[in-house]
Amino acid sequence: MDTATTGVRHPKGPAKPRKGPDARAFAAALLDSTVGAKILVALTGTALTLFVVFHMIGNLKVLQGPDAINGYAYFLKHDLGALIWLARGGLLLAFVLHLALALRLKLRSVAARPVPYQVFQPSQAGLASRTMVYTGVVVGLFTLFHLAHYTFGWVKGVQVPDAASGQKVWKNYLDLTDAKGRHDVYEMVVSGFSNLWVVAIYLVAQVVLFVHLRHGIPSVFQTLGIKNARLRGGIDILGLLVALTILVGNVVLVLAVQLGWLKAQYAAG
Asked: Long-range contacts of range 253-259, CB-CB < 8 Å, 24 or more positions apart?
């Protein structure tokens, strides 16, 4: 009788291999967890900040004259093709995720302390860190206004001379064309920033964006575990420089019209 054993057999048969979580379950768990939400806020914030930087650089081409900015706009709209729509879709997703997750984190933080401090004396948190959600909401609302103003042309138009009648007629920003038949972005920008209440909205929004980025950029390094005692000073300086560069670049773009550096041939409407 052979008494040798080759192994222990489970009475219910061999164990089935366990399946790992699928992509949908992993994404749901990531979005639901506080740590995962903070990481996604940091990553989407980084993507949006990079877009703001490149958007500002492209817009500053208006200082080089109509041909430079109109040619750049034509390249983005016609030469990139589907890539520009993929980029817009990605930015929209990043924008929605960034704002929604930041608001949910704020609500969770408030819910975790239903009874407020009797005397609120933050030891390290500055004004920018305590108002991140509020400045983010303001920047989000301004983004919608900016899209309505220049992307969709819903806010205001411009008066242009009509070749047939010799009189001035109203035109939408999107209908302006230059001598080469391209969208006249130069005239659109100059006309848009000829209105003082529009200028005021843009200037206030840029200050709010500066406050948001001044704290938000160093916070990305903090969330990703890169910011430590040795690197803290350099990271804070980097955040200040990037936020200040964006502020100065965008403000110069707006004030260039008011200071007469850029002039339009059309009367602003």
From this structure: 253/56, 253/59, 253/60, 253/62, 253/63, 253/189, 253/193, 254/193, 254/199, 254/202, 254/203, 254/206, 255/199, 256/62, 256/63, 256/193, 257/189, 257/190, 257/193, 257/194, 257/199, 258/193, 258/194, 258/199
- For residue range 219-246, what is the model confidence (pLDDT) as tens digits? 999 998 888 888 889 999 999 999 999 9
Helices (H), the chain: 23-32, 34-59, 66-74, 82-112, 127-130, 132-146, 185-192, 196-223, 232-258
Q: Which residues contact 233 (CB under 8 A, 6 or more apart)?
A: none
Distance CA 3, CA 11 (A): 19
Q: Which domains does the chain have, with CATH numbers?
A: 32-110+129-268 (1.20.1300.10)
The torsion of the CA quartet 244, 247, 248, 251, rounded to 10 degrees, works out to: -170
With 0.85 as the threshold, say if the pTM is over it: no
Rounded to whole angstroms, the Cα distance separating 65 from 4 reads 91
